[in-house]
Fold:
Amino acid sequence: MPTRPLNQDDPLDDFSTREYSFEGVPKRVHVTGAGPAVVVMAEMPGISPHVARFARWVRDAGFTVYLPSLFGHDGGIPSAEEGAETFRRACISAEFHAFAKNAASPVTRWLRALAGRAHEECGGPGVGAIGMCFTGNFALSMMLEPSVLAPVLCQPSLPLDDPGGLEIASRDLDAIARRLEREDLEVLAYRFEGDRFCQAARFAAYEAALGNRFVGRVLPDDAANDDVPPFFANHVECPHSVVTVHLIDEAGEPTVEARDEILAFFARRLRAR
Structure:
């Protein structure tokens, strides 16, 4: 399909927009594709054209993408200040635990229910999930839902106030570690070496908890695209978004290799054998 411009709002007109309600909470979800389900959770400040591009790559690889609207303006490119305001609202929202609490964000319960419904609708062995930045660890918490078989954590950034902290309760982390071992599953994770929001200490904590079931990839900072939207230029100011804003879409680039590894991971885990 034609490449869509990344510097213009994306109408998401190749997605169908549905409303799903779990535990009495309705949310918009943009759905596209066919095949096993993959839940794609946007980074701050929302479903940008870069996030939509990644979702389309997943779709074109043979999956049904479920793209929930969790914050921000769907398809939009916010100004630096608009993006910062979205971030501030999320930080004080009851749905998210932006700061250390030894617990997952409450919205992950809703996302687990979405994964279960997506599995019912799409079939196949199970569901994939990828979180980015603010939602990065959500894919791990979603492993408490039995249908989730392929979790990917891109630059997981919460909790914001503890570089080595994990945004999940210890008992849940232990349960997930046992499940990974019992079902021979693994967790993929990605970060840039100099990312201030997802530092080496966080990957070390994941590895300590999950052992060799945690497969962490660290990309060099010079592999990051430097032509970024206003929010990233003004408020992120370091290599951060591995498969979206900082991806360089050229053959042989480390970010493209990361994207392709993720798509291959989904294919390996989610397609019927």
Observations:
- The first helix runs from residue 49 to 60.
- The chain has a mean pLDDT of 97.
